[in-house]
Design goal:
There is one protein chain. By secondary structure, the protein is an alpha+beta fold. About 30% of the residues lie in helices and about 20% in strands. A hairpin with a 5-residue loop joins strand 21 and strand 22. Manganese (II) ion binds near residues 240, 262 and 287.
Length: about 600
C-alpha cells in the first residue's frame, strides 16, 4: 500500500519519524474490520486484550497504574512566546521542547510497529472536516481510533497528492529490546510523559502515555487544542460541548450545545431519556462541537467524532439507558472490573454487586475490598452509530443550527439549578467564569474547585483571554441569530451532602424551561446573577421533590456571591491586557446588581 501513496510531504514526514523512532516495521491502516480484528487478535495473544464472553466482539484492557487519565501538568501549548499560550496553559519554548522530545523519541519504537492512521474528524469530505495522520506504536490506539474517528483508505483518497493534514506523532515510549517480554500496558514513567501542541504549525507530539486524550490524538489534541487555535484564526468555534436535538410535543426542534467540564455530565445529557411526556431527545455528539456560521447567518454544529469515549462508573440502565444499549457489542472497555462470568462491571452498574470480580489492576476483588473495582476514570469506547437515540442527522456535513448554549459545572453550593444570561456578553461572562470541582478525568486531586472557563481550561490551544474575545466577536457576528445562553448546576447538595436535584433524565425539565424561554412563552425572574425560573414554570410533574429542596436549588446566597465577586476579580487579573474590557464591565454590572 505504501507504494500507492503519492503524497510527497506525507511520505517524507513518515520517513523522518521512522528514522527517529526506529520501529521494526511500518504498517498503513486501511480502517477495515479485518484490520481491527487482526490487531485485536495480536493483543489477545500478547495478553493485553481480554475478550468478553458476554458482549460480542468486545474487549477489556487494563492500563498501567501511572496511565489512567489525561496529564494536564504535562500537557503543553508550545507557541513562539509564552504570552500566546496564556496563563492557563503550560508552556515550553518550541525549540527546547522539540529537543527534549526528540531525545525521548530517539529509538523509542524499537521492537515495535509504527502504525500510520489516516483519519478524518467529521464526515469524510465534508467542508467542515479536517484530516489528521497519527503515527503511533500502539495497536490499542489503532483500534480505539477506528471507533472514535473515520479511519482509512478513503481519507488518503481525499488527501490526494498534496492535501492538507495535521501531523500527530504518538509513542507509548516503551521500546522493546530483542527477546524482551512486553508489559501488558507498556508506557513511559509519569515524569517522561509529554503531550505537546505546536498550534502555530498545526503539529502534535505525544510521548509516554497510551490512555485516552493523551493518545487518541484526534480528540482533545486535534479537535480541541489545535482546532481551537485554527478556529480563532479562521472565525469558527471548536468547543468541549455535547450536541443534542430536543423535540417538543408540538414537533418543534431545538438544538442544544452544552459545555460541562470533564466527567460532569455531557454524555449523560447528550443521551438523556426525557422524564416528561411528549418530549424527545436525540444525540448528535457527547464531547466536542465544531461550529460555523452558515449562509443563513445561524451557527451550525457538527460532531467531529464517530464514537463515545465515555466515563464508565455511574453509567447504568437507571442513569443512562441509551449509553448502556450502545455497549452490547463492538466496544472497548478500559480499566473496568471483570466479573467471573466474563462481563464488565463498575461502581453504579445495574443489579447486584458481584460477590467476586477482578478489579482494574487485575487483582481479586470483593464488596469488602477497600478500593473500587473499576478505576473512577474507567472508560468505554463505543461506536456512536450503536446509540439507540443517535440523531438521524448526526453525520449531516452541514451540521445542525444551534438554538441554545448551556454552560455548567459541578458546584456543591452557591450556583443555582439554572439561570439565563441577560444577553450574549453576559453569557460569555458566565462561560468565562464557570467553575467546577475537579474529577478523575485528569491525574491529580479530585474535588478541588477551580475555574474551568467554557469547560476549556485543559483544551484551549491559545491565550484564554483571546479566546474570551473570540466568543465576544462571534456574538457580534451572529447578532440577532445568536443562540440563547444558560448556566446550569445539577450538582448542588443539601447541608447533609445529598444531591438536591435528581439529574439525568429529569434534566429535561430544565431544558424544557429553556425552550419555553426561547419561544417567548414564559417570563423569568430578574436577579443579580441572571434570569431565574418562576417555580410554577418548572415542570415538576411526577417528580418527588420537596418544596424546600426546590427553594434551595433556586436560592441565591448573597454572601456567597459577594465572595464569588472578589474571587472572579482575582481570577480575571491573571489575563492582564488580554482580558476583554466587556468582561470587566460585566463584573461591574454584577457587583452593582448586588448593591
Ligand atoms: P468527559 O467524557 O470526561 O468529557 O465527561 P462528560 O461530561 O461526558 O461526563 P459524563 O456524562 O460521563 O458524567 C460523568 C459523571 O457525572 C458520572 O459519574 C455521572 O454519574 C455524573 N452525572 C452525569 N449527569 C449527572 C446528573 O445529572 N446528576 C448527577 N448527580 N450526576 C451526574
Ligand atoms: C475528558 O477528559 O474530557 C474526556 C476524556 O473526554 S479524554 O479523551 O481522555 O480526554
Ligand atoms: Mn471531554
Amino acid at each position: 500500500m505504501l507504494a500507492t501513496i503519492k503524497h510527497e510531504k506525507l511520505n517524507c514526514w513518515i520517513q523522518e519519524v521512522a528514522e527517529l523512532c526506529q520501529p521494526d516495521s511500518i504498517y498503513w491502516c486501511d480502517g477495515t474490520k479485518k484490520e481491527y480484528d487482526s490487531m485485536m487478535s495480536l493483543m489477545i495473544e500478547s495478553g493485553m486484550a481480554i475478550p468478553l464472553s458476554k458482549r460480542a466482539n468486545s474487549f477489556l484492557f487494563r492500563s498501567d497504574t501511572s496511565d489512567v487519565a489525561r496529564v494536564e501538568d504535562q500537557t503543553y501549548i508550545s507557541t513562539l512566546t509564552q504570552d500566546e499560550a496564556g496563563p492557563t496553559n503550560n508552556w515550553i519554548d518550541p525549540a527546547e521542547l522539540k529537543k527534549i522530545m526528540t531525545d525521548l523519541y530517539t529509538g523509542c519504537m524499537k521492537g515495535r510497529t509504527l502504525y500510520v492512521i489516516p483519519f478524518s474528524m467529521g464526515p469524510i469530505g465534508s467542508p467542515i472536516s479536517k484530516i489528521g495522520i497519527e503515527l503511533t506504536d500502539s495497536p490499542y490506539v489503532v483500534c480505539n481510533m477506528h471507533i472514535m474517528t473515520r479511519v482509512g483508505t478513503k481519507v488518503l483518497e481525499v488527501l490526494g497528492t498534496d492535501g492538507e493534514y495535521i501531523p500527530c506523532v504518538h509513542s507509548i515510549g516503551a521500546p522493546l529490546a530483542e527477546g524482551q517480554k512486553d508489559a501488558s500496558w507498556p508506557c513511559a514513567p509519569i515524569e517522561k510523559k509529554y503531550i505537546s501542541h505546536f498550534p502555530q504549525e498545526n503539529l502534535i507530539w505525544s510521548f509516554g502515555s497510551g490512555y485516552g486524550g493523551n493518545a487518541l490524538l484526534g480528540k482533545k489534541c486535534l479537535a480541541l487544542r489545535i482546532a481551537s487555535a485554527m478556529a480563532k484564526r479562521e472565525g469558527w468555534m471548536a468547543e468541549h460541548m455535547l450536541i443534542l436535538r430536543l423535540t417538543n410535543p408540538e414537533g418543534r426542534r431545538f438544538h442544544i450545545a452544552a459545555a460541562f467540564p470533564s466527567a460532569c455530565g455531557k454524555t449523560n445529557l447528550a443521551m438523556l431519556k426525557p422524564m416528561i411526556e411528549g418530549w424527545k431527545c436525540e444525540c448528535i455528539g457527547d464531547d466536542i462541537a465544531w461550529m460555523k456560521i452558515g449562509t443563513d447567518g445561524r451557527l451550525y454544529a457538527i460532531n467531529p467524532e464517530a464514537g463515545f469515549f465515555g466515563v464508565a462508573p455511574g453509567t447504568s440502565y437507571d442513569s443512562n439507558p441509551s449509553a448502556m444499549d450502545s455497549l452490547n457489542k463492538n466496544c472497548i472497555f478500559t480499566n473496568c472490573a471483570l466479573t467471573d462470568d466474563g462481563d464488565i462491571w463498575w461502581e453504579g452498574f445495574d443489579g447486584e454487586t458481584p460477590a467476586h470480580a477482578i478489579d482494574w489492576k487485575g487483582n481479586d476483588w470483593t464488596p469488602e475490598s477497600k478500593s473500587s473495582a473499576a478505576h473512577p476514570n474507567a472508560r468505554f469506547t463505543a461506536p456512536a452509530s450503536q446509540c439507540p437515540v443517535i440523531c438521524p442527522d448526526w453525520e449531516d456535513p452541514n451540521g445542525v443550527p444551534i438554538d441554545i448554549f448551556v454552560f455548567g459545572g459541578r458546584r456543591a453550593s452557591v450556583v443555582p439549578l439554572v439561570n439565563e444570561a441577560y444577553d450574549w456578553n453576559h453569557g460569555v461572562f458566565l462561560g468565562s467564569t464557570a467553575a467546577s470541582e475537579t474529577t478523575a478525568a485528569n491525574i491529580g486531586e479530585v474535588g478541588n474547585l477551580r475555574r474551568d472557563p467554557f469547560a476549556m481550561k485543559p483544551f484551549c490551544g491559545y491565550n484564554m483571554g483571546e479566546y474570551f474575545q473570540h466568543w465576544l466577536d462571534m456574538g457580534n457576528k451572529l447578532g440577532e441569530k445568536a443562540p440563547r445562553m444558560f448556566y446550569v448546576n445539577w450538582f448542588r447538595k443539601s447541608p447533609d451532602g445529598k444531591w438536591l436535584w435528581p439529574g439525568f433524565g429529569d434534566n429535561v425539565r430544565v431544558l424544557k424551561w429553556m425552550c419555553e424561554r426561547v419561544e417567548g412563552k414564559i417570563d423569568a425572574i430578574e436577579t443579580p446573577i441572571g434570569l431565574l425560573p418562576k417555580k410554577e414554570n418548572l415542570d415538576l410533574n411526577g417528580l418527588n421533590i420537596s418544596n424546600d429542596d426546590i427553594e434551595e436549588l433556586l436560592r441565591i446566597d448573597t454572601e456567597a456571591w459577594r465572595a464569588e465577586l472578589s474571587d472572579i476579580e482575582k481570577y480575571f487579573q491573571q489575563f492582564g491586557s488580554h482580558l476583554p474590557q466587556p468582561l470587566y464591565a460585566q463584573l461591574e454590572n454584577l457587583r452593582n446588581r448586588f448593591k
